[in-house]
Amino acid sequence: MTTTQPTTQPIDPTGVSTDTGPENLGTIIIGAGQTGLSTAYFLGKAGLPCVVIDEHERVGDQWRARYDSLRLNSPARYDALPGMRFPAPPGSYPSGRDMADYLESYVAEMGIRVMSGMPVSRVQRQADGSWAVTVGGESLLANNVVVACGSERLPKVPEFGADLDPGIRQVHSSDYRNPDQLLPGPVLVVGAGQSGADIALELRAAGFETTLAGIVPGEVPVPFGSRRSRAAFPLLWFAANHVLTLRTPIGRKMQPAVRSHGAPLVRVRRPELDAAGVRRIESRAVRAQGGLPVLESGEVLDVANVVWCTGYRRDFGFIEPSVTGPDGWPLDDGGVVASAPGLFFMGLLFQRGFYSMLIGGAWRDASFIADQIAALERSHSRLAA
Question: What is the pTM of this model?
Answer without folding.
Answer: 0.89
